[in-house]
Design brief:
Layout (H helix, E strand, L loop, with lengths): L1 E9 L9 H17 L3 E6 L9 H6 L2 H9 L4 E2 L3 H5 L3 H7 L6 E3 L3 E3 L8 E2 L1 E5 L5 E8 L3 H6 L2 E3 L2 H15 L2 E7 L2 H10 L5 E4 L10 E3 L2 E4 L7 E10 L4 E11 L7 H18 L2 E5 L12 H14 L3 E5 L10 E4 H7 L6 E7 H11 L2 H4 L16 E4 L1 E7 L5 E8 L2 E2 L5 E7 L9 H4 L4 E3 L5 H12 L1
Parallel strand pairs: 1-2, 2-3, 3-4, 4-6, 8-10, 10-11, 11-13, 17-24
Antiparallel strand pairs: 1-14, 5-9, 7-8, 12-13, 14-15, 16-18, 17-20, 19-24, 19-25, 21-22, 22-23
Helix pairs in contact: 10-15
Organism: Pontibacillus litoralis JSM 072002
Protein name: Metallophosphoesterase
Family: Belongs to the 5'-nucleotidase family.
């Protein structure tokens, strides 16, 4: 006897709710179809459903995201780094208390005290015909960030070494919900033949028809719910084997929206507005913003960053502020709208020659005009780097390009062999935008504060 089992999934929604009504309508249609055919269907999410850039998620602390997953009939989810390291400890601990689905994340644990009741390493789902499907979840191990927030995160490979055989012994089919990224997914497929399917996320990759690594099928559906994924498994009970597996990702541009979901999102938006309309201070005059100029508000913001981290100097890009402030009341919603990024303050140590190279790179036209996507940045463009505790003298060449002539820290010329403590945004510790910062051996992150918390302090201080 053969049984077809259907898994439908989302990954890296990042609170892009504009696509959610289509997704739920599609799930409902497929659920009705499979029910009529007496076929097993499960719906899963691979993490980063939550993103604090959206007012609903910010105001309701991710609880609306969980309600949306509940109402959409999800069966299993894993968590991404946006759930894990952009929410304060207590908010993550309570996030899934009302979840009607299983939350699986084997490499996460609470540092002090018991784990939350919702947290499971894996779950076993059994179809009406008796086929057992193990679904295990793992998330990207940002150890430093998790530790600062009161969590422990272990190596996915160490966890799999210890647990995969235990999982395999309990199930006919093993499905891995991976918020690790494409490179780790491919390596895991090479190492662990007991995993039948890897449904991936984190790196926003898209496999429209899956990818094979040895005998493991990999799939992923990009980001923001533009695509959704389907996995079709054919289990042969008589032969006791997985006879066939297929994976597809579909664009939902032609799918109609679920009107009830649109209405629900409008209700959440109204609740979020009530929370975010709370004034935090009042301004006697407007504070304009310009991404390629040093304005009063960005200058004061960088001063706050330097003071908050007790650094010798600080730097922050003007593009971190999306808009200026009008005079009058400043609300929590204004702060969130103008600085929506889930980015944290950090401090690094740089030698003088490394700091000079960072400053030079930050003054290049290419860097200032970079349209950065991801790494916590939710803005449009990097913009001009603005400094505190550091004076940078620039000039222009014949083509009009800026170049750095002199750098002073605390009024003294930059010393090439001296170590300086420099505060900035944690975004620059990732990737290779500013190699001197990303390669620094010393990085201190400040959590759970986000940059917008420091912006609020700045506005209160100068108002």
């Amino acid at each position: 006897m053969e049984e077809n089992i259907f898994l439908y999934y989302t990954n890296d929604i990042h609170s892009h709710f504009e696509n959610w009504p289509k997704i739920v309508a599609y799930w409902n249609k497929q659920r009705s179809y499979h029910r009529q055919r007496n076929e097993a269907m499960f719906t899963v999410d691979i993490g980063d459903h939550v993103d604090r850039f959206h007012p609903i998620t910010e105001a309701l602390k991710g609880k609306a995201n969980v309600e949306l997953l509940n109402k959409a009939g999800y069966d299993v989810v894993t968590i991404g780094n946006n759930e894990g390291i952009t929410l304060p400890h207590d908010d993550l601990y309570s996030l899934y208390e009302e979840a009607a689905f299983d939350v699986v994340c084997g490499n996460l644990s609470n540092r002090e005290g018991p784990n939350p009741e919702w947290l499971k390493p894996y779950t076993i789902k059994t179809t009406e015909k008796g086929t057992k499907i193990a679904m295990l979840g793992l998330t990207a191990p940002f150890k430093t960030f998790y530790r600062l927030l009161g969590w422990d995160i272990s190596s996915p490979f160490e966890w799999l070494d210890q647990t995969i055989q235990e999982v395999r012994n309990q199930a006919d089919i093993v499905v891995f919900l991976s918020h690790l990224g494409i490179n780790d997914d491919q390596e895991i497929a090479r190492r662990y033949e007991d995993i039948d399917v890897i449904i991936g996320g984190h790196t926003h990759h898209l496999f429209k028809e899956g990818e094979w690594v040895n005998n493991t099928l990999l799939t992923a559906a990009g980001k923001h719910g533009v695509y959704v994924g389907e996995v079709i498994l054919t289990w042969d009970a008589e032969a006791n084997m997985l006879k066939q597996k297929q994976a597809y990702a579909y664009h939902l541009n032609e799918q109609e929206e679920a009107a009830s979901v649109k209405q629900l999102l409008e209700e959440y938006q109204a609740k979020a507005s009530d929370v975010l309309n709370e004034p935090i201070t009042y301004l006697s005059q407007p504070l304009p913003v310009h991404w390629f100029k040093e304005t009063q508000i960005i200058k004061e913001f960088v001063h706050t960053l330097r003071s908050w981290t007790d650094a010798e100097c600080a730097m922050l890009n003007a593009g971190v502020l999306m808009d200026g402030f009008s005079d009058g009341a400043v609300t929590r919603g204004d702060i969130h709208r103008i600085c929506p990024h889930p980015m944290n303050p950090c401090k690094v140590k740089l030698q003088g020659d490394e700091l000079l190279e960072v400053v030079r790179h930050a003054h290049t036209k290419r860097f200032m005009e970079l349209k950065l996507k991801g790494f916590g940045f939710r803005g449009e463009i990097i913009g001009r780097m603005v400094f505190s505790g550091m004076e940078v003298t620039v000039s222009r060449d014949r083509d009009g390009n800026e170049y750095v002539k002199n750098v002073h820290v605390a009024g003294e010329p930059l010393q090439m062999d001296r170590t300086y403590e420099v505060a900035t945004a944690d975004t620059f510790t990732f990737g290779k935008f500013l190699p001197g910062i990303s390669n620094s051996a010393y990085k201190q992150f400040y959590m759970p504060e986000l940059l917008r918390d420091l912006l609020a302090h700045t506005l209160i201080r100068i108002s």
